[in-house]
Amino acid sequence: MGKSFSYGILGGVILLGIADALGTRMGLVDGALPRDPGTAAWTSSRAAGVAAYFALSLDVIFGLFISTGRADRFIPRAQTVEVHRWLSSTTLALIGGHVLLLLGDGYARFDLLDAMVPFVHPYRPLAVGLGILAGDLALVLHGSFSLRRKIGIALWRRLHRLTFALFVLAATHGLVAGTDAAAPFMIVTYATTAGVVAILLVARLLPFSDGGSARRTAEESA
Known about the structure:
This protein is an all-alpha fold and about 220 residues long. The chain has 9 helices and no strands. The longest helix has 29 residues, at about 40-70.
């Protein structure tokens, strides 16, 4: 009952946001979204986006810990699975915060349709569109956790491989859309996270990796 009510409220807010966006585009209303004339909304949105990338990177890394078994000597497998799931939820929440704050920016002036449909907003359409695709994919992958027994483990495993596509989309979005992407700290961040993910991915694909047994254990624990 509680979840159904919450989902109903969320669905209603989304529908109102879409109606407001359509009405504004058609000239029927002026738009109900409050806009920040300064830079606070943009800066906060960017901070939430960077935090979301950090959480996503850790989420992918912990997922690879599970599938390769490389961290079992340091972290119990069940705890690794729980951290992985918590990071997935945290990533999604930070993406939501990134989008909501961006809707309040008075310069870019995104509306809900701009935030949901990729490649339609004139501000850096390719870069922003990749970010929207990443957000949509993050939502699908997070939802797959609760559906894995209904859709079957085999299909869930194939779907879960899209996590790497999500990581690439998010990193590309940050690099080409982020106003601070050229800062030394961000360059080191992107290089380090990509390097760690690449090393663990190679370890997972190596023939002597114990990833097969690790994946089976993870699926039983999830």
